[in-house]
Amino acid sequence: MDSFITKDGKKLRRGYTTGTCAAAAAKAAAIMLLEERELSSVWLLTPGGVELTLEVLDSVRGPASVSCGIVKDSGDDPDVTNGMTVYAKVTKTAERGVISIEGGEGIGRVTKPGLDQSVGNAAINSTPRRMITEALLSVCEDHGYGGGLSVLIYAPEGKEIAKKTFNERLGIVGGISILGTTGIVEPMSDSAVVETIRAELSVRAAAGKKAVLFTPGNYGADFIKNSLGLEPSAAVMTSNFIGDAFALASEAGFSEALLIGHIGKIVKLAGGMFNTHSRWGDCRAEIFAAHAALSGAGNETVAQIMDSAMTDDMLRLLDSEGLKDAVMRSIMRKIEFQLTQRHLGAMRAGVITFSNVYGILGMTGDAEEILRNIQGDN
């Protein structure tokens, strides 16, 4: 796909989704079935309005069906499904004007409520299903075909590839999901991460959970397991999207949410940074320096903090001055203040932060009680 965006100063190539692959394969198979000829490529208009002409591979003709595949191209996005072939097998049926869609080998199946598809359905989301249906109805109309078509979507590599995704945590077993809302992959898409958080929260809410545990990444997951005795799967991974995670939890109806994370990321919340990616700023030293000054640190200590690159160095310096606990109390008060500005409705929110050297460094007022509720629920 020859389409690009610029992100963080880099030119990145767009790709197309598994949903686009499934719809294109289904359309190509239907045309070959009704015209009784082979296709080398197929044209498809994505929901986002992008026109694609994609190569058709591995065509196989049966007595009343045709199957073929489309290779997934994620562009410059680091997607584990890149290069995988998504297949569609299209068969004539007697049900006039009916397009039925099912998932086969390598396509996951939904086992928990709260996702885009109902429990028991193949994990082929609503937009890809609509893309497939619209494409095939158009093919039927163009060819004057009045019967129905059944579509089997499959991906032989899907079961192994799914092990590298969050599917099992979400309750999708046995393979990949067929996804996409615009049909196009935006490289390094922030929205894709946020949608993953939304989906996991939806599953947990549908299971009746009232409190949710967040952690940004592996440091937090290790701490949750080794220090709190909780399995990492008990937590929803937020990456840098901490503000989005809290807002989505409130929207999903959770009554409590607790974030546990390493001080190197969590300290940014005291500065109102609820997206903690470094491209949005790095206020760690400034926050530590300001709260050190508020706690009685002298100019030389403040200057040394400002000259430190790592939060562990800042903490060691404050500890040697006997100021670590006072500074952390001050920072946690500010984090709690920033949380109250997030408009989270009736949901209680808390934060616990730690370092690998000092263990738990601080927590907001409700954090300990929320943690007990989460521990009792797991």
Can you offer a commentary on this structure?
This protein has 378 residues and is α/β, with parallel strands linked by helices. It folds into two domains: 4-185, CbiD-like; 190-376, no CATH class. The protein is 38% helix and 23% strand. The protein is built from 13 helices and 18 strands. The chain has helices at 18-35, 126-142, 158-162, 167-170, 190-206, 218-228, 242-251, 263-266, 284-294, 299-306, 311-320, 324-340, 367-376, and strands spanning 4-7, 10-13, 15-16, 41-45, 51-55, 57-61, 65-71, 85-93, 99-103, 109-110, 148-154, 172-173, 184-185, 211-215, 235-237, 256-262, 348-355, 359-363. The strands form six sheets. Strands 6-7-8-11-9 form a five-stranded mixed sheet, with helices on one face. Strands 15-14-16-17-18 form a five-stranded mixed sheet, sandwiched between helices. Strands 1-2 form a two-stranded antiparallel sheet. Strand 17 (348-355) and strand 18 (359-363) form a beta hairpin. Helix 1 runs parallel beside helix 2, helix 5 packs parallel to helix 7 (242-251) and helix 9 (284-294) packs antiparallel against helix 10. The longest helix has 18 residues, at 18-35. The chain is elongated. The model has no long low-confidence stretch (mean pLDDT 94).
